[in-house]
Write a structure and sequence with these properties.
Length: about 300
């Protein structure tokens, strides 16, 4: 028999835990399923300098622990479990199967499962993550003031990352697999006209070098086979993000990239009544902790009104 819940929140990043704070204060007794990465991507970040209220910065893990404690203080329940299957209905009970086989039936569901950055798959990426390797220039660019960095990618996201990094870095290598950019003409022209950006065409990253922190990036020309070692202190693979929404494919309306569609502009409502979405799983544009938190607030208020 399924365990009945008033509100279940999938995900424990800034969106999920902010939703839990608001929902718990509204006496909705939310159950938060922390998922495969409790605390979300911020737990894999070192210092966070751009979250309001922390003028000296805060460690990503510490920030998420404080958000969780705040949610628990108001009565939110946190379970370190993930959903492996779901049976969603329009305006009905939302069914979830957990990894241990338990069944849940929720009157309302908030999906805050986040998104995962795409990596090149090099072993050194994992070893040097947060020690020079980052998937977020907006989050970490200021740490590389006066230092050379490298960006991988040829699309608009890569150009945006490179241009943003040029405000801080001494030099920005842009490593592109082809001999042309996929970016829009406007973004491409803006990037080419920036004196700090150096393009390496037909190139791919072979390895990242450094013991305690990133020191160099080894690059191979895909046409000539020639290799080159770049002195870099920062490395940003700008290959896009993959929303963690596969569980809902065929049940919730997703866009072509897999992000959850929010048909009613300005709300968190999905294509099914009683199911709401917040954070990076529904946000392909901003992907910041503070915007995810704001979306979590919105989802909790929408869920409260729905349940009322």
């Amino acid at each position: 028999m399924a365990q009945e819940e008033k509100l279940v929140i999938l995900g424990s990043g800034p969106a999920g835990l902010t939703a839990a704070i608001y929902a718990a204060r509204a006496k909705l007794e939310p159950l938060v399923l922390a998922g495969a990465l409790p605390g979300g991507l911020l737990t894999r970040t070192t210092e966070v300098e751009n979250f309001p209220g922390f003028p000296e910065g805060v460690q990503g893990v510490d920030l998420m622990m404080q958000l969780q404690s705040q949610a628990e203080r108001f009565g939110a329940r946190i379970e370190y479990a993930a959903a492996t299957a779901c049976r969603l209905t329009d305006g009905g009970s939302q069914g979830l199967t957990l990894e241990d086989g338990r069944e849940l039936a929720a009157r309302a569901l908030i999906v805050a499962t986040g998104a995962s950055p795409r990596w090149l798959g090099l072993p050194a990426e994992e070893r040097l993550r947060n020690h020079g390797v980052s998937a977020c220039a907006t989050c970490d660019g200021a740490f590389f003031a006066g230092l050379p960095v490298a960006v991988v990618g040829g699309g608009d996201s890569a150009m945006e990352e490179a241009l943003f990094l040029s405000r801080f870095a001494s030099h920005v290598y842009v490593i592109v697999r082809r001999d042309v950019l996929r970016a829009s003409a406007v973004m491409g022209e803006r990037a080419r006209s920036n004196d700090k950006l150096e393009f390496l065409w037909n190139s791919e990253v072979v390895d990242l070098l450094g013991e305690q922190a990133l020191e160099q990036v080894r690059v191979r020309n895909r046409v000539s086979g020639e290799e080159r070692v770049l002195d870099c202190r920062g490395f940003f693979p700008a290959l896009g993000h993959q929303p963690d929404t596969e569980l809902f494919r065929g049940q919730l309306e997703l866009d072509e990239a897999g992000y959850i569609r929010l048909p009613d502009s300005g709300t968190s409502r999905t294509s099914l009544a009683g199911v709401f979405a917040a954070g990076d799983c529904a946000d392909s544009r901003y992907r910041q902790a503070i915007t995810a938190a704001g979306m979590g607030c919105r989802a909790a208020i929408d869920a409260e009104r729905y349940l009322a």
